[in-house]
């Protein structure tokens, strides 16, 4: 069943997501974000809006970017999946961002390659890297894509070792970082040890790191 879904997405992606790629959807997002400009006391949750995402990330990112100056229109998406239901898809489709999608599943990446092929033909620098990201290779994967320092958004969503990958990254200083956290861990600072077992496929409950752990990590980028 999964292979059938991937086949349909791969060859009929623009039809399936015809509403999301339409210019009117971009206008709706911009109008949504504009209502928050100049207001105080805004919570990120208030700005939630979905174009390609599931949990409001598109609106939150658009709002954050609107509050920053000179954000480079480049992204690094680690754990991109099919590159469509991605934190970076809206930026690539509607706002001319360029970047790299990284995932270990070649079938998922093949869906993304088809979805973005027209933009690539038009000159967009959108790349796809098939790799299982580790603390040992993540910096090389990024620098191989010619991304160093000048990155607007780093997204990490690999269902487990996200915290450790983020901690290992030294090749870039992204303006905005979006990283998966385990809200199920509550307010405690908890980090599951790095390794093969730190993944939801190995243990659905005990994986990843809490929001508190990611927020309070004593690193130069936090």
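Sequence proposed for the structure above (222 residues):
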């Amino acid at each position: 069943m999964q292979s059938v879904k991937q086949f349909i997405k791969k060859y009929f992606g623009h039809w399936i997501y015809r509403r999301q790629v339409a210019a009117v959807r971009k206008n709706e997002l911009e109008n949504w974000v504009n209502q928050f400009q100049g207001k105080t006391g805004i919570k990120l949750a208030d700005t939630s809006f979905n174009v390609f995402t599931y949990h409001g990330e598109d609106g939150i990112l658009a709002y954050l970017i609107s509050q920053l100056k000179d954000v480079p229109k480049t992204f690094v998406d680690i754990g991109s999946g099919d590159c469509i239901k991605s934190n970076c898809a809206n930026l690539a489709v509607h706002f001319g961002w360029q970047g790299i999608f990284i995932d270990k599943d070649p079938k998922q990446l093949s869906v993304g390659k088809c979805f973005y092929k027209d933009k690539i033909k038009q000159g967009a620098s959108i790349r796809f890297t098939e790799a299982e990201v580790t603390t040992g290779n993540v910096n090389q994967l990024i620098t191989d894509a010619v991304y160093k320092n000048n990155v607007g958004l780093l997204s990490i969503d690999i269902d487990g070792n996200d915290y450790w990958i983020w901690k290992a990254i030294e090749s870039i200083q992204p303006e905005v970082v979006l990283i998966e956290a385990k809200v199920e861990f509550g307010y405690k600072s908890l980090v599951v040890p790095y390794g093969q077992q730190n993944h939801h496929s190995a243990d659905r409950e005990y994986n990843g790191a809490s929001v508190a752990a990611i927020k309070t990590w004593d690193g130069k980028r936090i």
